[in-house]
Amino acid sequence: MAAKRIVAQALLILMPALLRLSLAAVYKVGDSAGWTTIGNIDYKQWAATKTFQVGDVIRSPVTIAYHLGLLDNDGFLIHLCHIGLLDNDDLPPRVARR
To answer: What residue stretch is flagged as signal peptide (predicted)?
Structure first.
């Protein structure tokens, strides 16, 4: 009986936190324009129109590729490897903090 009471109390304590997490929003930086240097996008204005909360996810839709290489003694590039393209959806989200 005491165990059920402890579980019930724990659930009552955790419920507000779980509810807050379920209300978290996902934002795409720049909305339909995305994250770009092309065009005239005011990201400060974009952010000013949002009300971010702890737990919200902010995604910046960019594509990332890495090339790893070294220069030899003559200054020529030795290509070591190419790490494939990663879409931002493959990366962990960034969490907005106040």
So the answer is: 1-24
